[in-house]
Amino acid sequence: MIRAARSAADELLSGLGVPIRKALEVTTPRGFDAAVSRLAALLRRLSRAPETEAVRQAVAVLDVDWRAMTAAQRSQLVRRALASAGRAVSTVHEQIRAPLGCAASDVVAATRSDGRRRGLAIAADLNAVDRRAVAYVTRANSLFVRDEYGRRLDSFGLEAKRIVARGLEDGLGRDEIAGDLARAANAAMVQRSASYWDVIAASFVGEARSLSQISSYAEAGIERYVLSAVLDEHTTDTCRFLDGKVIQTGEAIRLLDRMESSVDPTAIKQVRPWVRERVGEDGKRALVVDRDGERSVLAVVERSGVGARDDRGAYSRALSGRDLAPAGIGFPPFHGLCRTTTLPDV
After folding, report:
1. 228 pairs with which residues across the strands?
2. Each residue of 114-156: pLDDT tens digit?
3. Do 199 and 141 contact (CB within 8 A), yes or no?
4. Distance between CA 122 and CA 112 in Å, rounded?
5. Tens of pLDDT along 161-175?
6. Which of 38, 3, 51 minimizes the C-alpha distance to 152?
7. Is cis: bond before 99, omega within 30 of 0?
8. What is the CA radius of gyration of the chain?
């Protein structure tokens, strides 16, 4: 099955003019950024035609004389437009599965090779946890993409209703309303992809790398690992706070167990939520995670290090390393475009 998926993906990439099986180096900041950039470019190419077709389908349905319709008819027409657009992008999450599967295998293999070069006592071939990691990140990210298009359609549906209502109120003609709807459809279905695929690619590569590192630590009998942030001017307070925290390898494996059993993106986010920044009543920013309707504070930012190199900042009310994994904070990525990695605690 893996060979068949790779064959299909390679054929697809070849047709797109994308270099196939270029050697990956994902354990350095520069190599990680390069891998993310390549994957994001591929995902944008794969999604471009369906997204453009979704806009065309929606606009074709919505180019009508709105003044001749009742409110109920207008609502029904918007629903038809969303259904047409939805069909155009309905297979994107399936189309990217094979390329994602190949990318995950490559990231995991490259990470394992790096571990061997660094002296970890591990075999050259992928182990069972590695294969679980490949399957998980491929499935999970495909589901996230499917849900993203659902959110885009919902957003466009609301905006379309506002545009029509406002256009009728302002006395706009059919062509003017159609133009506004076309721009809104393009913004929702195409323009949002410019940054979205960067986030997906960074999360995908980061998670595949982390899970492979943890797999290698477990195989080598290493019981703990250290979170290691890239402490440059762009690093977030989240990663500055987490830099240097020690996590139990067994806790991370158990976190993967729970992630694998999650059947949809909402459930996955409950198991391993991303860290958010929120401002408290005292005006201070806090690093928080939301799970099961409850909010947990990881730390309060007393002094930010953002904008400086090699500065973790200062924090209060901070959770210890042993309390992070139970809160779902076991391994990177911790937020969008996260670059943090792990190192064995030896």
Report:
1. 341
2. 999 999 999 999 999 999 999 999 999 999 999 999 999 999 9
3. no
4. 8
5. 999 999 999 999 999
6. 51
7. no
8. 23
The two tokens of residue 21 are: 């099986």
User: Is the distance from CB of 93 to CB of 146 less than 8 angstroms?
Assistant: yes
Which tokens go with 272? 């391993």
- Distance in angstroms (rounded) separating the CA atoms of residues 98 and 79: 32
How far, rounded to the nearest angstrom, does the alpha carbon of residue 319 sit from its chain's CA centroid?
Answer: 25
For the record, the structure tokens of 94 come out as 């399936």
Q: State the pLDDT confidence band at 293, using cuts at 50, 70 and 90.
A: confident
- For residues 98 and 12, the answer to whether their CB atoms sit within 8 Å is yes
User: What pLDDT, on the 0 to 100 scale, is given for residue 148?
Assistant: 97
**Pairwise CA distance, residues 265 & 271, whole Å:** 10
Q: How many residues can be counted in the chain? A: 346
Q: Is the pLDDT assigned to residue 17 strictly greater than 90?
A: no
DSSP codes of every residue in 268-295: HHHHSPPPEEEE-TTS-EEEEEEETTEE
φ, ψ at 167 (rounded to 5°): -65, -40
* Phi and psi angles of residue 344, each rounded to the nearest 5 degrees, phi first: -65, 140
Q: Are 333 and 202 in contact (CB under 8 A)?
A: yes
Distance of CA 3 to the CA centre of its chain: 26
Residue 117 makes CB contacts below 8 A (sequence gap 6+) with none
Decide: helix, strand or coil at residue 296.
strand
Contact status, residue 303 vs residue 241, Cβ threshold 8 Å:
no
Rounded to an integer, what distance in angstroms lies between the CA atom of residue 246 and that of residue 225? Answer: 6
- Give the span between the Cα atoms of 118 and 205, in whole angstroms: 20
Q: Which residues have C-beta within 8 Å of that of residue 300, sequence separation ≥ 6?
A: 280, 284, 285, 286, 287, 315, 316, 317, 318
% of the chain with per-residue pLDDT over 70:
93
pLDDT tens across 178-212, in order? 999 999 999 999 999 889 999 999 999 999 999 99
* pLDDT greater than 50 at residue 345: yes
